[in-house]
Amino acid sequence: MKKLTLILVLTIFSATAALADLYQWQDREGVIHITDSLEKVPDAYRDKVKVYESAPKEKKAETEAVAPAPLPPERGVELYGDHTLEWWRQTFLRKTGEAQMLESNVTAKRQFIDIYERGRGFGQTFGMNEIETYSRYKKELPDDQDRLTTLKNELDDLRREARIAGVPRDIRGE
User: Residue 31: its pLDDT value, please?
Assistant: First the structure.
C-alpha cells in the first residue's frame, strides 16, 4: 500500500511543470476557481476563462525589475494609486494563485520526502525513479520555500500599498 501511494505521488508531481499558465473562472455561485490545466475547467466556463501566462524566470525577473509607466487614465476610469481597480484585481489574483500553487507544490514535495524517508527507515527499497525524484525534491525544496516566502512578502507589500491607495477590502483579499 505504501509503495502504491509513493508511486501515485511520484506520478502526479513528475508530470507537473515548475511554471505553468494559470486559468481562472467564476462559477454560478460566484466562487472563483484557479487551476494550472485548461482540462480542469468545466466546459460551461471555458469561454469565460481568464489565462495568466507564466514567463520564464529570467524574463520574469527582467519584467519585474523595470515597471512600465502607468498609462494615462481613460475618461471615467477611477484610479487607486497609479492603477485601475481591474489592475489591482488581476494582480492580486495572479499573485495569490501563484502563491497557492507554489504552496501546494511545497507541501506535496515535503510529503513525498517524508514518505520516502519513513519508508527507507523501515527498510523499504526504492527504484531509480523514486531515488532521483527524492534527490531532486530535496534540492528544489529550499529554493521553493524561499520563493514562497518572497511571494508572501510581495503579497503583504501589495496589500499595504492597496490599503494606502484605497482599494476595497474584497479585492485585497482581507
Answer: 76
Q: Which residues pair with 33 in a beta bridge?
A: 25
Residues paired with residue 79 on neighbouring β-strands, in sequence order: 84
Instruction: Supply 46's cell numbers.
Output: 471555458
The chain-wide mean pLDDT, for the chain, equals 79
Q: How far apart are CA 75 and CA 48, in angstroms?
A: 27
Span 81-104, pLDDT tens digits:
889 999 999 999 999 999 999 999
Asked whether 88 and 141 are in contact (CB, 8 A), the reply is no
- Inter-CA distances, 151 with 40, 53, 99, Å: 25, 17, 6
Q: What angle do CA 78, 84, 89 make, to 5 degrees?
A: 130
